[in-house]
Amino acid sequence: FQVSPLGDYVAFRQNYEAFVVPLLPGKQAVEIDQKSGPLPVVRVSGDGADFINWSADGKRIHWSVGPTLYSADTAALFAAGPQGEDAPKFAAPKSGVSLSMDVPAAKPTGTVALVGARVVTMASTDGGILNDATILIRGDRIVAIGPRGTVTVPTGATIVDVAGKTIIPGLVDAHAHGPQGEDELIPEQNWNAMANLAFGTTTVHDPSSRSAEIFPAAEMQRAGLRLQPRTFSTGEVIYGAKAAEVYADIATYDDALAIVRRLKAQGAHSVKNYNQPRREQRQMVVAAAQAEGLEVVPEGGSLFTMDMSLVQDGNSTVEHNVPLEHFYNDVVQLWSQTKTNYTPTLVVTYGGPAGDPYWRAHTDVWRHPLLTRHAPPAALAAQNARREIAPDEDYVDAASAREAKKLADKGVQVSIGAHGQQAGLGAHWEMWSFVRGGWSPIEALRAGTIMPATSLGYARDVGSLEVGKLADLVVLNADPTIDIRNSDKVDKVMLGGRLYDAATLSEVATGTYTRKPYWWEGAAGANGSGARLTSGHGHGDWAQD
Predict the structure, then answer these.
(1) In this structure, which CATH number among 3.20.20.140, 2.40.10.10, 3.30.70.1130, 3.40.50.1370 belongs to the domain 171-462?
(2) pTM higher than 0.85 for the full model?
(3) How do beta strands 230-233 and 270-271 pair?
(4) C-alpha distances out from residue 11 to 32, 52, 87, 317, Å
(5) 292-304 pLDDT tens trace
(6) Band of residue 6 on the pLDDT scale cut at 50, 70, 90
(7) Cα four-point dihedral sign 204, 208, 213, 216
């Protein structure tokens, strides 16, 4: 809350809106609420409010929504005397002052040819594999791709020999939580996000984050001010549980529309409909998002009946695994006749131990030669060297993957979603768990590339290696179509036409960018001793989603 400079009003934020009440003199405690209380309450904002403050003289109140600054005269908020029910009420301003500015998007110049690799294009369901291929990139997009003899490399192009390598599209993590800042401060370098990029994740979608941190970080990435995957998010979830500061009270369609418009103004491409208790509330969010052109990526909180209503009601996806050991024909037939897709997040599953504990128990995470370059080594060892293990049949990631395959075989887009469990490796664990559940390596790679791109509406630009698409790709030292466990053997990563060495994340062949040292490098205690390695989910302690 914010008290006015003269001490006569107090502004507070509830349900993501700004409200003002008169402030009584003295020290008596008064409970105030947007809907009730002993004092008159005026809603000041229309479609959300952030960063509420007063003018120096207290005559105006200010707030923002995304890049727009709104203001209102304090004198206009409350009538001078008693008025009837039909008297005009204060109306929130519908326009404000735009504080936005245009910044050029970072885009390389010149032409680059990657020559000699086995390329898994994902342009078709069989992987669209090209042997001894050439990928020609101009600026940030692919302009030609095909067998070596079919692509003409122009004079002056930079040629990168990738013979013996396998190239796949950049991974698209559809459920990628992760920290982007702290107290709304955005660092220039984020090791968590950079670890994801080093392992080949070039696009992330975070379905629960802090708008004031993730959207600035995403803009910094697009402007070339921060190296990390392309970043999309819902911002804050539309949360139906009555938790302090994050509860989204939806009683009417207009309530849902105001919340959706606020998130859209902040930069959201999608919204997360999360634990709204009544079906009509969830339906209002879907209708509002459709009206504003946004995707809806809900989860059912481990409730099968809620999951099925999400499928029926026009949501874009269902996030997290449906808590059933078997999908019978009723579920498969219903789901496959909708346009709702599925992100089962195999690394965190309902019903038993998930992929995350499985792969931590069965691999030496703290010794991974690439991960130790991009995460505090001592913290990795502290959290992974001593491992808990369960019988293989107790882990449910494989069963969840097996059932998801029934949907994928019927045309549902099923996506990886690493949930921020382990920066870098999480997306690979997802694909490995799909294979544990009976998917072929090609099918698992599709779940990591073209299917999430299609599900989220990004397939025009990413998800496969085709002419006209962004040059986001991963150069591997071994072939994951033969053994999916080869997917983490990353040699280089290309993001928007810029090629980076996976071990250093410094640019090679396409430019001169050199990564700055991480905080644990090149100083006393450089092994990261005593460091706290964040889990990476990035959505705080108030929600596990």
Answers:
(1) 3.20.20.140
(2) yes
(3) unpaired
(4) 11, 8, 23, 37
(5) 999 999 998 899 9
(6) confident
(7) positive
